């Protein structure tokens, strides 16, 4: 599509989204829930169509050489479509934050001040080729009273179109504006540029992806951004770690699902930790390629030499860089230099060291004696997630309904004039 046509398409979509957002903001919680339940039914009813569209994406993905992990992320079957519909229903059952009073105070002059949650407005989401995000993100935005413009990964375009068609039809049948959730129907990356620069037309953009997307966002974004970027996550095994816990968590943090953003990419091991060999052996036995320096190779002979670039690499695969460090402060300095502010964990039985790490590491999620793979809205009890916010504003970590709202001050007086 020509860039001028993309501009016109995006201008039309954003105008329709704004109109929908105005109507959504006035809907009650029950009305929004009802529409989402209708959307879940519509997704279930369209299961065969969605799976057929996905088969075409899978065929094209395999032909273009997508990795096994990428194909697994793209793949839908009856179970996954059913899970997607159930996810939309789960969002419908969440408590609606819109209208909640965050704080209330009364001034000496009698003015009563309240901060009340409101929708953000029009939210643009750019995400990877994972089709279930179309349903999750659309449902979360709508339940929080926002209109969504979704731009999924190009490899998933046919699946996304099919899911979106069902979702939008279901929402409309359930009484929500059809434009509450729109999908960018083309794969041209110019649409991403148009979203990033749509000041006034889009209120917030969520970029969910890796380095290529980061670079573009940094260069072009003029719309407020809630970054959901790469997960270069660390697990640090402290000298006071329980050896069995260290082994089990290191394997889980890397190998449970290697392709997700919460997977550990670098293992830091305190030189004072007595038992590193079983940890590294367990990882290698589980099929993980280890990369480390000579010290690491001396402990685990299957480890390959690490290059400088390894400390800055998000593998999203069964590969782990491993470094020996002199204590928690050096570990924290390494994370500050090489991490991506996503999720970092310490394994230790020493509560003081743990607190030092939890306070000192500046990431959206910091963990003590837990696997970084728990970085997930569902696992945090939020029902679903847009993703993991790695930015600093205004929500960090798993973003769900509350992260998709802002607030306004409501001031109630009895005729006060300012002296
Ligand atoms: N923090 C979080 O919540 C999450 C983070 N991630 C991160 O995403 C990455 C993995 O996904 P991956 O498939 O590599 O994601 P990509 O960054 O390649 O793709 C994500 C989206 O961004 C688009 N995109 C990428 N580069 C550009 C560009 N230069 N201009 C315009 N659009 C662009 C893609 O479009 P196109 O299809 O055209 O390439 C796609 O829609 C990992 O780094 C992972 O950590 C993943 C999920 C959640
Ligand atoms: N937070 C989700 C994973 C999100 C994610 O990383 O997605 P992807 O990069 O598409 O595999 C989970 O833990 O299942």
From TrEMBL:
Catalytic reaction(s) noted: L-glutamate 5-semialdehyde + phosphate + NADP(+) = L-glutamyl 5-phosphate + NADPH + H(+)
Localization terms from the record: Cytoplasm
UniProt xrefs under CDD domains: ALDH_F18-19_ProA-GPR
Cellular-component GO terms for this entry: cytoplasm
Keyword vocabulary terms for this entry: Amino-acid biosynthesis, Cytoplasm, NADP, Oxidoreductase, Proline biosynthesis
Pathway it works in: Amino-acid biosynthesis; L-proline biosynthesis; L-glutamate 5-semialdehyde from L-glutamate: step 2/2
UniProt-recorded Gene Ontology molecular function terms: glutamate-5-semialdehyde dehydrogenase activity; NADP binding
UniProt record similarity statement: Belongs to the gamma-glutamyl phosphate reductase family.
Its job: Catalyzes the NADPH-dependent reduction of L-glutamate 5-phosphate into L-glutamate 5-semialdehyde and phosphate. The product spontaneously undergoes cyclization to form 1-pyrroline-5-carboxylate.
Protein name according to UniProt: Gamma-glutamyl phosphate reductase
Organism: Sphingomonas hengshuiensis
Gene this protein is translated from: proA
């Amino acid at each position: 599509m020509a860039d001028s046509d993309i501009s016109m398409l995006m201008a039309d979509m954003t105008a329709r989204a704004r109109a929908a957002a105005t109507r959504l903001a006035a809907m009650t919680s029950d009305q929004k829930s009802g529409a989402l339940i209708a959307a879940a039914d519509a997704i279930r009813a369209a299961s065969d169509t969605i799976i057929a569209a996905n088969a075409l994406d899978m065929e094209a993905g395999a032909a273009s050489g997508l990795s096994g992990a990428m194909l697994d992320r793209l793949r839908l079957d009856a179970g996954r479509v059913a899970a997607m519909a159930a996810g939309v229903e789960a969002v419908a059952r969440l408590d609606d934050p819109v209208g909640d009073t965050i704080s209330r105070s009364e001034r000496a002059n009698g003015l009563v001040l309240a901060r009340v949650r409101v929708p953000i407005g029009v939210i643009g989401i750019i995400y990877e080729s994972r089709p279930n995000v179309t349903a999750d993100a659309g449902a979360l935005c709508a339940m929080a009273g926002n209109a969504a413009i979704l731009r999924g990964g190009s490899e998933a375009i046919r699946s996304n179109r099919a899911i979106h068609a069902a979702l939008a039809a279901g929402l409309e049948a359930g009484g929500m504006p059809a434009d509450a959730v729109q999908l960018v129907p083309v794969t041209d990356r110019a649409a991403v540029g148009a979203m990033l620069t749509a000041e006034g037309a889009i209120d917030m953009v969520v970029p969910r992806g890796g380095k290529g997307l980061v670079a573009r966002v940094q260069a072009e974004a003029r719309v407020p951004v809630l970054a959901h970027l790469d997960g270069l996550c660390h697990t640090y095994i402290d000298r006071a770690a329980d050896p069995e816990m260290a082994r089990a968590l290191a394997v889980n943090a890397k190998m449970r699902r290697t392709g997700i953003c919460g997977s550990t990419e670098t293992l830091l091991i305190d030189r004072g930790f007595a038992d590193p060999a079983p940890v590294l052996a367990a990882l290698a036995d589980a099929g993980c390629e280890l990369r480390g320096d000579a010290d690491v190779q001396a402990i685990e002979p299957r480890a390959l030499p690490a290059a400088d670039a390894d400390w800055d690499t998000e593998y999203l695969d069964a590969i782990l860089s491993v470094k020996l460090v002199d204590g928690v402060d050096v570990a924290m300095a390494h994370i500050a230099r090489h991490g991506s502010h996503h999720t970092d964990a310490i394994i230790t039985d020493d509560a003081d060291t743990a607190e030092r790490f939890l306070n000192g590491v500046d990431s959206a999620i910091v963990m003590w004696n837990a696997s970084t793979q728990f970085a997930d809205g569902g696992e945090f009890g939020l029902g679903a997630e847009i993703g993991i916010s790695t930015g600093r504003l205004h929500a960090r970590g798993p973003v769900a309904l509350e992260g998709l709202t802002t607030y306004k001050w409501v001031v109630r007086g009895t005729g006060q004039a300012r002296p």
